[in-house]
């Protein structure tokens, strides 16, 4: 039987990965629509009819269309309240959304000046901007590291939407820091397990959960 869930995504997008991570963690089947940014699939009329901004991810279920990664996570969570992705109490709800928004406002929002030159071959001449962006994000990683304690998740003692939001962003940055284009720069992230021991242990613990490795962007494997 064909799943009614349809996901539009681009390999390597940490935001699309959030949704795939959740779907794989929970074992939900979905129809995959992988878009090719090299062919500008996300800018074609058929896709723009679903999302005029031409961004991913996008989830379609029948006549329902949901854009933005955390809106999709919230939608799926509401359909499966037993997942407790946003906790059990109003306080849990506030703390989870607080962590999600801090990741997006203080880390995700600062990604472009750091990772675009790395992944698009334009590091030369931008070393100062890259260093400054790296320092800002490394400071936020240190905050995340201090938030975590051994065996715990970002909010409390079980996995929540905060972990789903943060994990792809953390792994995306870690991958960027290992890129040969910045091997000559000390950006303050490596060795990752020494710089951010709690964050590294948390990421390893999440990666060991069933389905997580299957959600990893295909071209990273």
Order of helices and strands: EHEHEEHHHHHHH
Largest sheet: 4 strands, mixed
Coarse morphology: globular
CA distance, first residue to last residue = 29 Å
- Helix content class: 40-55%
**How much of the sequence is in beta strands?**
5-15%
Low-confidence stretches: none
Number of helices: 9
Rg over CA atoms: 18 Å
Which structural class do you get from the secondary structure elements? alpha+beta
The strand order across the widest sheet is 2-1-3-4
Question: Mean pLDDT, nearest integer?
Answer: 95
Q: Strand tally, please?
A: 4
Outline the fold blueprint.
Elements: E1 5-9, H1 14-25, E2 31-34, H2 45-48, E3 58-61, E4 64-67, H3 69-79, H4 90-106, H5 112-119, H6 127-147, H7 161-177, H8 192-195, H9 197-207
Parallel strand pairs: 1-2
Antiparallel strand pairs: 1-3, 3-4
Helix pairs in contact: 1-3, 1-7, 4-7, 5-6, 6-9
Give structural notes.
This protein is α+β, with helices and mostly antiparallel strands. Helix content is 48%, strand content 8%. It has nine helices and four strands; from the N terminus they run βαβαββααααααα. A four-stranded mixed sheet has the order 2-1-3-4, covered by helices on one side. Helix 1 packs parallel to helix 3 (69-79) and helix 1 packs across helix 7 (161-177). The longest helix is centred in the middle third of the chain and has 21 residues, at 127-147. The radius of gyration is 18 Å and the shape is globular. The mean pLDDT is 95.
